[in-house]
Amino acid sequence: MSILKEIEKRKTFGIISHPDAGKTTLTEKLLLFGGAIQVAGAVKSNKIKRSATSDFMEIERQRGISVATSVMAFEYRGMKINILDTPGHQDFAEDTYRTLTAVDSVIVVIDVAKGVEIQTEKLVSVCRMRNTPIIVFINKLDREGKDGFDLIDEVEQKLGIKVRPLSWPIGMGQRFKGVYNLYEKKICLFNPHGKQTEEDTIEISDLSDERLDELVGEAAANELREEVNLIEEVYDTFDPEVYKKGEISPVFFGSALNNFGVKEMLDCFVEIAPNPLPRITEERIVDPEEDKFAGFVFKIHANMDPKHRDRIAFLRVCSGKFERNTNYLHVRQNRKMKFSNPTAFMASKKSVIDEAYPGDIVGLYDSGNFKIGDTVTAGEILHFKGIPSFSPEQFRYVTNADPMKSKQLAKGLEQLMDEGVAQLFTKELNNRKIIGTVGALQFEVIQYRLKNEYGASCTYEHLNLHKACWVSCDDPEELKAFRTRRKRDLALDKYGQLVFLAESAWAMKMVQDNFPKIQLHFKSEF
Ligand code: G4P
């Protein structure tokens, strides 16, 4: 098959949600449709539960599960669909941010009763930076929840996206009758006690059709007519091209647990979701159809078992064909590498593959050569962009607790940072090291892993910071003055980029007032 045909077959996406909205349940239903799994319950949630905070065996067990479920591929209607799993736990949000750099579109799951929650807001804001096309799935319609219109208003306001309903609920909770599929003009009747069958989907192209009253009752039918009228008046006709630009998000309603409304969304997804898209590098734009292979590492998963210190680097193929046992260039290290056991993931099964195409994710066994963001190519020097670090939210000074093991500590910290577990900043003033994370759990994970994998010990000292902001400035004089005046609050990240450690939002405002040419950024790429 030509490379173009392979690309046209592929869709690579991620599902994001606030924990408990139904991401795992939805993923499982999608895999069931694709025949990648046969029974419900086969996909284990990779949720790191709150109670696991000090139970490292539990973290380890769950990390084991999460490597198996990091990428799940399935075939549906002749397409190869790659789902990239994203940890729901907010302490692992940085991992999710980076996974989002490797997808071409996302599905956002929202709980009908809870509406838009904080974690969803954060994740969608990352998608919006890259104009990633978004489909919204409003879940748990079998329960009472918010009014449909209120909910989509909330989605537009809180997520800052424009939406277009493509299905609409008929009642909810006890009164939930089903959904009207505005895209295909069909009624799908909800059958709470059994499996959805073909007969439950009835084509009704004109809502004035009297069959509607028979199917859902007169009151519900009239309500639906009114609501759909309103939708058609208020919203433009759905245009898949506008969706592909990330400017409009179709909305579907359903119940993942009851496998209801999922197929409708999946059918629409395979039609409209983008195939592997071009990616930007510092040098040029890389098109998937190019002959030569290029890809980047977006996630590194370490084995926490000290007997097996290997890691798996997850590489997204961006162009050309990736082949097993072929010499490729590790651009940062400027050296050739061959991969004899590249791995692909089908549901929870791993298997060695001979080739992979744009959109595919390949697992590469790694003994410490890769960092997040590394580029691998057939020979060209390229650096993929759009894999930034984001400002952490929690900070601590890290100090060596065992003077005999300072080398081990330095090595351990460096490798853990390469894996993207947290970020390390070095203060300009006194070289003190600061670890920044998105969640408190990471501090414990780091301490545990340093001890178990590197034999190093560290202690932490609390540091009250609001944000770490990357600094840029076109005026060398002003930058010099800023560096002198704010020396106490400056640090370097692991790439040597200048970072302002802001104690408060006020401190950032002061910088903006006193140094108008200094720009502060919440991510390392700008
Ligand atoms: P997550 O990955 O987004 O964190 O959510 P997950 O799928 O684990 O779902 C969270 C809870 O919501 C689960 O219940 C799940 O069964 C339930 N759920 C998912 N979809 C629906 C739905 O459409 N309707 C209803 N009523 N519930 C739904 P749990 O009790 O926390 O877990 P479990 O014991 O059922 O696994």
Structure write-up:
The chain is α+β, with helices and mostly antiparallel strands and 526 residues long. The chain folds into three domains: 3-177 and 235-272, 3-Layer(aba) Sandwich (Rossmann fold), CATH 3.40.50; 279-377, Rossmann fold (3-Layer(aba) Sandwich); 394-521, 2-Layer Sandwich (Alpha-Beta Plaits). The protein contains 14 helices and 31 strands. The strands form seven sheets. An eight-stranded antiparallel β-sheet has the order 27-24-26-25-29-30-28-31. The structure holds guanosine-5',3'-tetraphosphate. Guanosine-5',3'-tetraphosphate binds at residues 17, 19-25, 45, 47, 88, 139-140, 142-143, 255-258.
Structural key phrases:
Alpha-Beta Plaits, 526 residues, 3 domains, Rossmann fold, 28% helix, 28% strand, alpha+beta, binds guanosine-5',3'-tetraphosphate, seven-stranded mixed sheet
